[in-house]
Amino acid sequence: MADRPFQTAPGFLECALSKQPRSDTINPMKISAFEIRPGNLLEYNGKLWRVAKIQHVKPGKGGAFMQVEMKDILAGTKLNERFRSEDKVEKAHVETRDMQYLYQDGSNLVFMDNSTYEQTFIPAADLEEQMGYLLPNTEVKVTFHNEQPIGLDLPANVVLEVVETEAAIKGQTASGSGKPAKLETGLTVTVPTFVNTGEKIKVNTDTGEYVERA
Q1: CB atoms within 10 A of CB 2
Q2: How far apart are CA 18 and CA 5, in angstroms?
Q3: Is residue 175 pLDDT above 70, yes or no?
């Protein structure tokens, strides 16, 4: 098998995607707006967007909707869009590869292909919304277009250690709105009041919310 030149310098996305993608190379499919997940690649208004954040909103009046923050993978601009439950969006079909996050090398994150053991470099700026869930050896699915990495899909939940939070009071149970906790990756989440520094917790990577103690 011939080696593929995975190692790239920052700015590779502009080169790889300088031409308008053709639908026959990306093969988009329609999905419900409520199926959108961070890391998804969408075709919207004639451009390719990577989903950075989602928020499922249920207002007191009217129907529920999905608030989606997206980043243009060519221009780097961001867009906040609201989709109703009945809306359909175009999810681009791209190649996915099972990979493992290794470490950060300057301004790049380094991933290793689980099959070939080749390494791929992705600018940290392109994954800024997902870095808080990445620890060395985390298993992810990296998406490729034209042999260039353009995003990744995280596991549904990850386990992270609490490195800073208010001390729990003995006998205290979950109540109220919880308290902020800083995790080992720098991510801050709201946790129940009984969670202590040094404990490991499970965090939902779609919502950034506490799930349970690990």
Answers
A1: 4
A2: 19
A3: no
